[in-house]
Amino acid sequence: MSTISIATATEVFDLLKDDLAAIEVEFARQADSPVAVVTDIANYLIAGGGKRIRPLLLLLSAKALHCESDARIRLGAVVEMLHTATLVHDDIIDEANTRRGRPSSNTTWGNAKCVLAGDWLYMQAFQTALAERNFRILDLLISLTQEMVEGELLQMEKLGHLINEEEYFDLIYRKTACLFKVSMQLGAVVANPSAREGERPFEDALGEYGRNLGLAFQIVDDVLDLTANDEILGKPAASDLREGKATLAVIHALERGTGADREAIRTVLADRSFVRVAHADILEILQRHGSLAYAMDTACAYAEAARQSITDLPESDYKRALLWVPGFVTSRDR
Question: What's the number of domains the chain is made of?
């Protein structure tokens, strides 16, 4: 595998800044509705920012395969619209009050309007995708949406309950990694739109990159939820435990802890609060058993698997950017 990589975030974003700016414009254009409240909610969400990592991945995938079609801009907006719709629905389901350091949309407009706005964004994303007249694009997006909804339903069923690592990885694949995977696959599709399924060079390899990167991304998110403070996260720390979600470090500690350790973790998961057991006590248990380090080591292993997935991709600045992204994912602090 090539050991060349782009050294800084600035270089990667400079490589894509025009395309990313065009995606912002396209997202805003697509989010314009004759019903003012839809536009208001969408504009509020757009202004909230975010890493835009999913459209960034789609762009890198497409450009690594020499795509110059404007479809990459339209589909970049599509994956960000889908991601934004999931965040709206997640905040309602989780009864979240903040998102990225601002009040969540549902605290401003209420659950009912935000559910419908999220639905509208889903349908707008599909309408934009439909205009490409490419069945492979629709096939990927329909399967993706089904998996994301299934993941949310599975997680709701498991709230407050203990799960094993296999169940955890299934959940985070559905909730996060499948969108990373499809973003990469869509880049391959728009680079060669007339090819039949199975005949697009590197679609499988790029999809595998996205899957591994998405798993690493979510594991890091889950560790940060446990360890970062509210100000850095832009939301209350340890939200997952408060919502009854057992993430990888917690599962690791449950399997290795003493009876008292396991009882403390079970209490927090069942209570969905730190009233009887303090957050600091849970962190001490996780530190003592090396559970946080275990989770980060697992994330780094998936990040390296992502790099290995694109070994055969032709050398280019875009490949070097793809080799940089896993390090960004595993070293971020929010």
Answer: 1
> Is residue 265 in some structural domain?
yes
Distance, in Å, from the CA atom of 299 to the CA atom of 221, rounded to the nearest integer, reads 10
With cut-offs at 50, 70 and 90, classify the pLDDT of residue 1.
very low
Tell me the CATH number at 150.
1.10.600.10
* Residue pLDDT, tens place only, 269-322: 999 999 999 999 999 999 999 999 999 999 999 999 999 999 999 999 999 999
State pTM to two decimals: 0.93
Residue 30 structural domain: 9-331
Q: Can you tell me the distance from the alpha carbon of 153 to that of 330, in angstroms, rounded to the nearest whole number?
A: 27
Q: How confident is the model at residue 72 (pLDDT cuts 50, 70, 90)?
A: very high
Q: Does any domain span residue 4?
A: no
